[in-house]
Amino acid sequence: MTEITAPKSPVTTEEFTDRIREQLKYAQGVTPEQATPADVYVASSLVVRHYLQDAWFKTQQDMVNGNTKAVGYLSAEFLMGKQLRNALLNAGMIDQFDAAVEGLGFKPQDVIDAEYEPALGNGGLGRLAACFIDSLASLGVPAFGYGIQYRYGIFKQEFDKDGKQIEKPEYWLANEEPWGHTDYNRSQRVNFGGKVVTRADGSKEWQPEWSVRAVPVDYMVPGYASGRVNTLRLWTAKSYDEFDLATFNKSDYLNAVKPKVKAEDISKILYPEDSTPQGKALRLEQQYFFVSASIHDAIRVFYPGQDKPDLTTFPDKITFQLNDTHPVIGIPELMRVLIDEYGYDWNTAWDITTRTFNYTCHTLLPEALEVWPAKLIGELLPRHLEIIKAINTNFLAELATKTRDKAKIDRMRIVTEGENPQVRMAYLATAGGSHVNGVAELHSELLKDVTLRDFSDIYPDKFTNVTNGVTPRRFIRLANPRLSALITEGLGTDRWLSDLELLKGLEPLAKDDEFVKKFAAVKQANKEDFAAYAKREYGFELDPNTMFNTMVKRLHEYKRQSLKILALIAKYADIKSGKVNVDDVLPRTVIFGAKAAPGYYLAKMTIQLINNVARVVNNDPDVKGKLNVYFPWNYNVRLAQHLIPATDLDEQISQAGKEASGTGNMKFALNGAMTVGTLDGANVEIRERVGAENFFLFGMTVDEVDKLYEEGYSPAKYYEADPRLKAAIDMVSDGTFSNGDRNTYAPLVADWLTKDWFMTLADFTAYTEIQSDIEALYRQPLEWNRKALLNVANSGYFSSDRSITDYLTRIWHTGPLA
Ligand code: GL4
Fold first, then answer.
1. Does the Cβ of 360 fall within 6 Å of ligand 1?
2. Is-contact 509 490, C-beta < 8 A?
3. Is-catalytic flag, 362?
4. d(Cα 771, Cα 698) in Å, to the nearest integer?
5. 559 belongs to the catalytic site
6. Strand-pair partners of 475
7. What is the pLDDT of residue 437?
8. For ligand 1, is residue 124 a contact (CB within 6 Å)?
9. Which of the residues 283, 477, 553, 689 is marked catalytic?
10. Phi then psi for 675, rounded to 5 degrees?
11. 276 lines ligand 1 (CB under 6 A)
12. pLDDT for residue 259 is more than 80
């Protein structure tokens, strides 16, 4: 008997059908006969919201009236993916929806596909935020996600005829968007610019120059089987002045709408940077905009109708998690609110503030830790600059009581000295919060021992680790229904969806050949599905009887897509030169997915190279279909959900010490892919858990990388030493992938041979050597699948429910609503 613990549907199919009809009639204004899948999508979404409404109210009431501290997850990005199917799953209405929609003459898949994916994030950091709010709700912990409702999400990626990336605006709000509820009556004023004056009593008054209206758009975040519905509150910027009538009357129409345009620019577009900095005034405006609105909102929510609330209790009401440095301006903002708006003295305000905030660091790349020119902050937020300077002064004084090491104190300045002082947001976050955490064990160690070494020396107790995780609801149950059914069959229960460590129960089944074969059949069917999907969406012809080898993530030098493409070119060169017999080559389909930041020259050139390698290799008869390269454009959550379950081999090949954690690596392991990877980020923990014998490890360690940097790294040496590497790079230079033009990739080749900051060349030989182990194993399907199954069985730790539980015990000190 299989135990089913999935949430019970609050509706019957008949009720669901009636509600859809009602919505179609009164909201969409169409008959079921006139309706399109898009109409049915909107109607069904409204029906789902309808059934979640009471649980949403109740969760909010219990949060405000009870004693359970809430979590406010402050994040500039929430990469949510499509909502409808996830909400149906979490609320237990999938079957009723499917039946109702079919009854009305539609295919459920068409209705699901009509949803336009909100792409309000760049990559792992934004998707992590989305997994975390799913887990918070599923665990019944009261929480707000606070962020920005960008009108344009991450750009839509296309490729031109030369294989170059083209960026198109992603206007995801072009059609009716049924999930967000705009609440004009809960808006907040956010001020900018102006000056600070000192009143007669010595207190300060900020006299801002301009303001915008922050209007919340609320999204329900239904927990899986928890009966709880939390809130994702994304702010959108509106102008207070629609236009200036005086200017308009002078017939200067464009200038008349300027204030509106300027104000609304704030939430217009998501910056497409990931692990690279973007020090623009507009970005600081965005950060302050959403953080200021969120802080005021939390005070409104937790002290309803109170003019003089006792904000010394604020840290007992809500704890704010700073998702990277993007929301760190919240620290001086809360100080300002407490001192200037509510009249608290500095020390009380500082005590409240430091107890309210915690900071998660998501990267070690020094260039990605945000630093703002003090001048810019001063122009935009003059009062905040004063407060930051005072925090800095107090902090330096406190340090002086803790250490005599003057050089160290100097290194720890929040505001640097000199002509153009800078504000280091990571330092401000560390000084102004209770805890600092990294996102995987290795990353947290490096954060403590290298990046924030001085801070961890003096405040060792602030530092902790919370290894990332992913939600099994979206990334196993929704993405991979076949595997989900097999897991439930194997375990005899579906309880694993709320307790992923139960996957461990599959371990003994890895010895059962029949079960392993079922597991292999699931993978094969997923590959066939993906081939059909890729044909439909991209016009690709994938052969599901080849190994599906995937590398999907942002395009960045440290992630080393170059290593993958160079190894592939080396294989191609082997075939062309006759060094290997093409008939002996294991058939592989290599699938890339990656967006490059629009200003990131080498990253964009790498995309162009991959596309042209694909063009050449896929069309070369000498290859006999053994090597196939595909680059589906515009990688997003939807594509991830299709591709991950169909992957045999996943690439996690960043230079050791550079990938803070990775979360794709977890999704692949949980979906039964094998990983080839370096000892980096969460790979280390994945390998520990799934077993070294079930993970393809290669490459330098962090220590070896450091040593090589110290000795002086010379990539040309590696080029000379490995003839296959040389052949591959020469093939890029000689025009094979640029219609004979030798200049096309010259900057990329020059970088490889003279700089190669992330040591792609140094790891090349090891990377190509491990390929023979990979291929030998793949030629034994039963053994491959046994190991892949062991990856699934031992990856339960990487549920975001476990991450959230760690945050609750190590950092937030709160829990589920009673
Ligand atoms: C990132 C890291 O690069 C990535 O390793 C990590 O998994 C993710 C979530 O913690 O955060 N940092 C930045 S910046 N973008 C990311 O995806």
1. no
2. yes
3. yes
4. 10
5. yes
6. none
7. 98
8. yes
9. 553
10. -115, 135
11. no
12. no
Is the pLDDT at 247 greater than 80? The verdict is no
**681 close to 440: Cβ distance less than 8 angstroms:** yes
Distance CA 414, CA 428 (A): 6
Q: What pLDDT sits at residue 354?
A: 98
pLDDT of 391 reads: 98
Say how far apart CA 427 and CA 407 lie, in whole Å.
16
| Nearest partner of 631 among 645, 649, 614, 648, judged by Cα | 614
Q: Where do the domains of the chain lie?
A: 68-81+117-379, 472-796
pLDDT on residue 376? 97
Check for a shared fold between 68-81+117-379 and 472-796: yes
The DSSP string of 657-709 is TT-S--SHHHHHHHTT-EEEE-S-TTHHHHHHHH-GGGSEE-S--HHHHHHHH
Distance from the alpha carbon of residue 126 to the mean position of ligand 1, in angstroms: 8
Residue 254 pLDDT exceeds 90: no
Report the separation in Å between the CA atom of 570 and the middle of ligand 1, taken as the mean of its atom positions.
Answer: 30
| C-beta of 118 in contact with ligand 1 (< 6 A) | no
The per-residue pLDDT for range 372-381, each reduced to its tens digit, is 999 999 999 9
CA 43, 48, 50, 56 torsion: positive or negative?
Answer: negative
Tell me the average pLDDT across 473-487: 98
The CATH number that domain 68-81+117-379 falls under is: 3.40.50.2000
- The span from the first CA to the last CA of the chain, in angstroms, equals 32
CATH class of 472-796: alpha beta
8 A C-beta contact, residue 484 and residue 459: no
Residue 468 has a pLDDT of: 98
**At residue 244, does pLDDT exceed 90?**
no
* Amino acid identity at 485: A
Q: Given 82, 213, 228, 362, which residue is catalytic? A: 362
Distance CA 86, CA 284 (A): 33
Query: Is 213 a known active-site residue?
Result: no
Please tell me the distance between residue 660's alpha carbon and the centre of ligand 1 in angstroms.
Answer: 6
Probe residue for ligand 1, chosen from 275, 321, 369, 798 as the CB with the greatest number of ligand atoms within 8 Å: 275
